[in-house]
Every structure is written in structure tokens, then in C-alpha cells.
Specification:
Strand order of the largest sheet: 2-1-3-4-5
Number of domains: 2
CATH superfamily of the largest domain: Response regulator
CATH architecture of the largest domain: 3-Layer(aba) Sandwich
Radius of gyration: 19 Å
Largest sheet: 5 strands, parallel
Helix content: 40-55%
Strand content: 5-15%
Structural class: alpha/beta
Shape: globular
Length: 252
């Protein structure tokens, strides 16, 4: 089993990560936990975990400082950082510290497990994930992209469920012109911001439709469309079938 160390200063968040993650499904077990970077440093030295899941910003020693120290000591375990949108520049620093991945908080049920699967090369990959990639390929944020593009993608991931998200809002949040951001985004992703938003929403909808707890109109609202007719016609145009047909196919 892969040994995991969880480092998170908020007690209930830390307990939630430990209790609500399906560790067995990804071949992992929690070897220990810590409430800050200093405690995490000592736990890592003692436990020698294979994987560390850590918040970035914590009182005292941050997650970044902790991992930087462990790297200097020669510990090369894999690291997944948890970060909020407003702390995205910290995620960029995490990538420079050879963090394997980062997740924007709050994240959805199953998202951590999926990141761990990809990270560990686990062959247990959900079929719908592969179908999303086949139907709607989408470039994720990476360190070789322009920093504005990375930030724009992070903004989309955090706000895709808001009905009126657009390039104007995203550009204003970063203090750059729409034209400049548009050119950079197209260069790094091969698509416009509006197309990226739509594709990201459709991928999320495909995932949500596989969960029978949600009605089709609820899925539409969750990904930013309050007009069910428009959502259904857009989904069919992009995916090739209606949301109801997709749900029926995914359940067979």
C-alpha cells in the first residue's frame, strides 16, 4: 500500500480528507497526519511516506517551506498541494518544487482520488474520464504556459458554475486587457476563452450526468446554465447526444 501523510491546519478539513477519501480504491493508506508544516516535517522524517497531501498556506511553516526542506534533505516522495484560487501564485511555486499536482479548494467528491490515480499510474481510471478526453480534449494548466493563462484556467475551474463568467470578468480579475489575455490564451491552449469555458462546463456535465442523484436540469444549473433547453441543445451539439441520452448510455 502507498503510505500517505496528510498535512492541513484546519482540523475538520484534515479529518474530512482522511475520513472521506476512498483510500483503498487508489491503493493507499493514511500513515499519519499533521496540523502544520513543522509537525508535517517531523512526521515526514519519521514515517517516510510515499505521498504527501498538504495545504499550501498554514500558520508557522507553510506547505511550500515544508516540502522545500524535505527536498533539501533528499526526500523525493510525491506531493499533492491543496490551494484556493486566490493563492494560485503559490501553486506556481509548488510546481517549481516538483510537486506532482495541485487541487483547487473546495474540490468535488472523487477529485482527490482521480488525481492520485493519475499520479500513481493506477490503471483504475474511470471510463467516463477517458470518454471526456476523447470527445472534448482540453489542456490543463501547466508550468510551461504563460502565467496569465494559468491564472485564467484556474479562474474558470473555480467559477465555471457562475452563469455570466466571461473574458471580461476574468481579465478584470487579473488587471490585464481582454485583447492581451485573449492572444495569450489562444496561443497556449489553441482555443478562445469562451470555447474553453464551454468545453470545461460540458466535461463537468458529462461527469455529473453519470450520477443519478442529479436531475438533468440540476446538472445544467451546476455548470452555469439555467435555461435547460439551451443547455440540452448545446450539450447535444458538442457531445453528439442529449444529456438524457448520454446519461442512459453511461448507465448501461
Amino acid at each position: 500500500m502507498i503510505r500517505v501523510l496528510v498535512v492541513e491546519d484546519e482540523k475538520f478539513v484534515r479529518q474530512g480528507i482522511i475520513r472521506n477519501t476512498n483510500w483503498k480504491s487508489v491503493g493507499c493508506e493514511v500513515a499519519g497526519s499533521a496540523a502544520d508544516g513543522n509537525e508535517g516535517l517531523e512526521e515526514a522524517r519519521a514515517l517516510r511516506p510515499d505521498l504527501i497531501i498538504s495545504d499550501i498556506r498554514m500558520p508557522g511553516m507553510s506547505g511550500l517551506q515544508m516540502v522545500r526542506q524535505l527536498r533539501e534533505e533528499g526526500m523525493n516522495c510525491k506531493v499533492i498541494f491543496l490551494t484556493a484560487f486566490g493563492e494560485f501564485h503559490y501553486a506556481q511555486e509548488a510546481l517549481r518544487l516538483q510537486a506532482a499536482d495541485y487541487i483547487l479548494k473546495p474540490y468535488r467528491d472523487g477529485e482527490l482520488e482521480n488525481v492520485i490515480r493519475r499520479l500513481l499510474g493506477n490503471s483504475i481510471i474511470r471510463e467516463e474520464e477517458q470518454e471526456e478526453d476523447d470527445i472534448l480534449p482540453l489542456k490543463a494548466a501547466s508550468s510551461d504556459m504563460n502565467r496569465y493563462v494559468q491564472t485564467a484556467i484556474a479562474y474558470i475551474e473555480a467559477h465555471f458554475g457562475e452563469e455570466n463568467i466571461n473574458i471580461t470578468e476574468i481579465a478584470q480579475s487579473m488587471g490585464v486587457s481582454e485583447g492581451h489575455l485573449s492572444r495569450l490564451f489562444k496561443k497556449d491552449t489553441d482555443m478562445s476563452i469562451s470555447t474553453y469555458i464551454t468545453r470545461y462546463r460540458m466535461r463537468k456535465a458529462m461527469r455529473l450526468l453519470s450520477d443519478v442523484r442529479y436531475k438533468v436540469y440540476e446538472v445544467g444549473e451546476m455548470v452555469g446554465y439555467h435555461d435547460i433547453g439551451y443547455f440540452s441543445s448545446l450539450f447535444k451539439r458538442i457531445v453528439g447526444v442529449t444529456p438524457s441520452e448520454y446519461r442512459g448510455r453511461s448507465q448501461t
